[in-house]
Structures are given as C-alpha cells and as structure tokens.
UniProtKB/TrEMBL annotation, chain A:
Protein name, entry field: DNA-binding protein
InterPro entries: ChsH2_C, ChsH2_Znr, NA-bd_OB-fold, Thioester_dehydratase-like
Sorted UniProt keywords: DNA-binding
PANTHER family for this protein: BLR3430 PROTEIN
GO-annotated molecular function: DNA binding
Keyword Transcription: no
UniProt domain ChsH2 rubredoxin-like zinc ribbon: residue ranges: 18-52
ChsH2 C-terminal OB-fold domain segment(s): 58-120
Top-level taxon in the UniProt lineage: Bacteria
Keyword DNA-binding: yes
Pfam families membership: OB_ChsH2_C (PF01796), zf-ChsH2 (PF12172)
Automatic annotation (TrEMBL), chain B:
Record bears the keyword Oxidoreductase: yes
Name of the featured protein: Diterpenoid dioxygenase
A GO MF label: dioxygenase activity
Classification via SUPFAM superfamilies: Thiolase-like
Keyword field: Dioxygenase, Oxidoreductase
Bilayer-crossing regions: none
Residue ranges of domain Thiolase C-terminal in the record: 263-382
One Pfam family in the UniProt entry: Thiolase_C_1
CDD domains: SCP-x_thiolase (cd00829)
Domain of life: Bacteria
The keyword Cytoplasm belongs to this UniProt entry's keyword annotation: no
Length: 134, 388
C-alpha cells in the first residue's frame, strides 16, 4: 500500500488544474486573446501578459517526451520501481506535465509512446496520471 | 571609489565531514579564518558578507548560517550584505560580491556557503524541515508524482541524452570515477571518499532513478567554504595571489525543471563567452557542478567544450578530463568525490589550481584560466577565473 501522494495546496491559480478531474477534464490555462497556453497556470498569460486567461479542457492525450524509472523509495512504504515521465500534451504546444505512467510494467514504457490521462483521486484532488494508449 | 576589476583573494574551507559534531557556525568561522589569514586581512577589513541561499529557517541543515548572523558573530562592519536563493545559482553570490566591489561599496567581501545536511539528520528537531500537510510553489508540479528529489528531475534530462544521443552508463560513470580518483589526493575529501571507484563497482551500483545510480548522486556533508572577493584597487592590502573574476553569467530563459528542453546551463554557458575575449580553447581546467553526474555534461556542452549531445563521447574513457588530460575536470573530486559543498567548492578548487597550490592533485603546466560553475535545471551560474 503506497503512502498518500503529496497534496498540492489549492489556490486561485492552480485549482482548475488539480480539481478538473472531477469532471474528467484536464485543464490547462489558455489565453483568451493570443490563444496560447500558460503552464504552470497563472492569472496572466506568459506570452502576451493578458489577464483574459481561463482554464481550457484539453484532449488529455500526449506522448512521452522523456522518462525515468525511479527505484528509490522517497517515502516510507513507497512501492518501487515506478515510472516518472514528462508528457508533451497533444494540442497544447510547449506544455509538458511531469507525471507517472501507470497500468503497465515499467519496462513497457518507451520514448514517444502515446498516452492518455487517467485521474487518481485523493481527498478531492485529482492527480493526472497517464497510461499507454492500447 | 569604483574599481574596474574584482578578484578572488583569500579562500578557506573547514573540515569536510559526515555528521561532524562541530556547530555549523564554528565551521563557518574555521573557513573564514583560513581565508582571512591567506589574504593577509583581518576581520576589521571585511566590509561585506554575501551568501547563497541565506539562512534556511525552515530547513536549517540545508543552510544553517545567515549573512546577518556572520556580521554579528564576527563583528563585521558591513557596507552591504545579501543572502538569498532567488539568484541564478550558488556561485552568483560571488558574482554579486564582485559587483559590490566594482561599485566601490565594499573593498573586501566575505562570501560563504555552509552546509550541515549530514549532521542535521542526527538532530532532526533542530535542523530538518517540519512535516508539511501540502506542497506549493514549483514542487507541486513534481512532488505529487513522487518526483520529490532533484535526482528524478535531472534523470529526465539524462534519460533523453541516453535516448537521443546514445549516452552510455560507461561514459556517464567517468564523472564519478574521475571524481573519486581526484578525491583520493584531496586531504579534505577523506571522510567522503576512502577508495577509488572502479567501473565494475559503478556498473553494479543500485539505481536511484535511471540512468542515475547511487554513485551519480552527491553525498550530504557538513562543511563551510569561504571565498573573499576584493576590489582591484584594494590589492595592495592583500598578501596572496589574486585571481581575477574575468566574466560571469547566470542566464535562464524559463525558471522550470520540466517546461524546457534544455537546462539553464546551456543559456548561461553560451552567454559567458560574450563577456570576455577568452574562448573555451584557453581554459586550463574546469570545475563543474556535479550534484548529479549528468550535470557536468550539460556544462561541457553548454559552454561549448563540445557540441550538444557529444558530452558522453567527450568524457569517454576519462582520459580527456583526467588531471593530465586536455581539460582536467573537478580536480578536488567534485561533490561526488569530496562532498556536497553546494557550489562553492568549485570556485575554491579553481583558485587553488590557478595558484599552483593543489599539492598532489595539482595539474601540470602553469594553469591561467579556469571555469567554475554551479547549478542544475533552472539554476545556473558560471565564473571565468583568470590569472592575468
């Protein structure tokens, strides 16, 4: 049994990201003026400084940009090994998510694998994890 | 009066150990006394104190001593002081000190970095972070996925190098092996490295986060390192050979570990050479931050000692980076071999080599130009140090 995941402190900027999974949505902040995405989420667009920015429900698919197989139990009881990956999101240029690849053996993960989001809930926070697209 | 140039003059270092009983303030005093004595100064002549990252109140083991405390404890009459983490990286505290003397605000600045990350574990109530219910800031984007250590973040970059450019474990292992060879000749590294690391032992080591194994991660230590930065027009007060801070850089395009393809070492590395007539071909030795073994590869490539992606082949077999090689690297052992001094050890060793005072580990010839760097991910600071 794994220990609980570290829990992000919810605030005005990050709540849409961490709770969007309740509706099955992967939310990324998008500018209503220039149309570009800002991640980590902010209340201003990092490309054009517009305040007209809101969370956008994106496709929730992507490809593995890079990954590491983690063998070190960083917390008591943490089951290893597991995969920590950086996923490049489809349709969201320039945005990557650090995440875990789940529901497959660690040696089944490869660069460029197509993946899709699966949410893991813990006390109202929806952690966006990814699994390989079959 | 403003001075055109800034120099590193006195350098000092405390004992380096694991779970040293000596209080970190006293370790800082040990290093400061050695540096002051070498420079031929007294504490009365120190008029500035700079550090990175400042006293870390929530996690004292990481940084147990503040600049304000040093002013008080050592009786320094300071004209400017600064300790903070919001700067390019560890060595940028020395960079800031060079600005203070060039502006004419200070004449002799004491710069220090004290760590108590091994000793602190033995006294968690005093030195370790309080348990937190939540994560916030940058760590909220990594810790929830158990990417809680910079080892995992660095491993992501290293793994792509393996995939894209064919970096091998045999190549990567040369950083730790070279560090251990040099550490064996460094009297201050005795508590950290007791025997030379072999390639077989390296390849057998347990993995931390692929491709980084145990020997690719530096080891918590207790130590203080001091560097004194003096104004060019104050050198008549100095007894040791001054080493010029010829250029520095601390560029970063995005402050993130995971939203960029290349860590800031590439930005800072590129920009260092825009501020000097020296080129990579002039460099006699490099002291590159190796909190994780992959980081020196980013500095080799970022500073243009080889092409992007060629770092693994550059260090292959270890001969090029050995003490008698074309580009001696981490001649005191680096942090992998000589302990996690957290950045300042690289400036200390660069100055030691340029002065020809490295004893058994002294590189051949008459080294005149060195590069010292610190940082990984979005942290990056480089100093070009010259004897000219």
């Amino acid at each position: 049994m794994n220990p609980p995941r570290p829990r992000p402190r919810l605030d005005q900027e990050n709540s849409a990201f961490w709770t969007g999974g309740a509706q099955g949505h992967l939310n990324i902040a998008k500018c209503g003026d220039c149309g570009q995405y800002t991640h980590p989420p902010r209340i201003i667009c990092r490309h054009c400084q517009s305040e007209n920015i809101a969370s956008d429900s994106v496709a929730g698919t992507g490809v593995i940009d890079t990954f590491t197989i983690n063998h070190q139990p960083w917390a008591k009881g943490l089951e290893v090994p597991f995969v920590i990956a950086r996923v490049a999101l489809d349709g969201v240029p320039g945005v990557y998510l650090t995440t875990n690849i789940v529901n497959c053996p660690v040696d089944a993960v490869a660069f460029g694998d197509a993946v899709k989001v699966v949410f893991e809930e813990q006390d109202g926070v929806f952690y966006p994890l990814f699994e390989k697209v079959a | 009066m403003a001075s055109k140039e800034a120099y590193i003059t006195g350098i000092g270092q405390s004992e380096v150990g694991v779970r040293l009983p000596r209080h970190p303030l006293l370790l800082t005093l040990d290093a400061a006394k050695e540096a002051i004595a070498e420079a031929g100064l007294t504490f009365d002549q120190i008029d500035g104190v700079f550090s990175f990252p400042g006293k870390s109140h929530g996690y004292l083991a990481f940084s147990p001593v503040g600049t304000d405390e040093i002013i008080e404890a050592l009786g320094i009459k300071s004209k400017w002081h600064m300790g903070g983490m919001e700067q390019p990286a560890q060595l940028s505290a020395i960079g800031m000190a060079s600005w203070a003397v060039k502006q004419g605000i200070c004449r002799h600045v004491l710069c220090f970095r004290t760590v108590y990350e091994a000793g602190g574990i033995a006294d968690p109530a005093q030195y370790m972070p309080a348990r937190s219910e939540t994560v916030s800031g940058a760590s909220q984007w990594t810790s929830p996925f158990w990417a809680t250590s910079a080892a995992c973040w660095t491993a992501q970059y290293a793994a792509r190098h393996v995939h894209q450019y064919g970096l091998t474990r045999e190549q990567l292992g040369q950083i730790a092996i070279n560090g251990s060879k040099n550490a064996m000749l460094n009297p201050r590294a005795r508590a950290i490295t007791r025997e030379e690391l072999t390639l077989d032992k390296y390849l057998d080591a347990r993995m931390i986060s692929t491709p980084l194994c145990l020997y690719d991660c530096d080891r918590f230590s207790d130590a203080s390192t001091v560097v004194i930065v003096s104004a060019g027009d104050a050198l008549d007060e100095i007894r040791c050979e001054p080493i010029r801070i010829a250029a520095m850089s601390g560029s970063v395009d995005r402050y993130s570990w995971d939203q960029v393809e290349w860590p800031a070492a590439y930005d800072a590395g590129r920009d260092l050479w825009t501020r000097t007539d020296y080129t990579p071909a002039d460099v006699d030795t490099v002291q590159f931050y190796d909190g994780f073994a992959f980081l020196p590869i980013t500095w080799l490539e970022g500073l243009g000692f080889c092409e992007k992606g060629e770092g693994g082949r550059f260090i292959e077999g270890g001969t090029r980076i050995a003490r008698d090689g074309q580009l001696p690297l981490n001649t005191a052992g680096g942090q992998l071999g000589a302990g996690r001094l957290h950045g300042f050890g690289f400036a200390h060793e660069a100055v030691t080599q340029l002065r020809g005072r490295a004893g058994e580990r002294q590189i051949p010839g008459d080294p005149r130009v060195a590069v010292a760097t610190s940082g990984g991910g979005p942290l990056a600071a480089a100093l070009l140090l010259t004897k000219d």
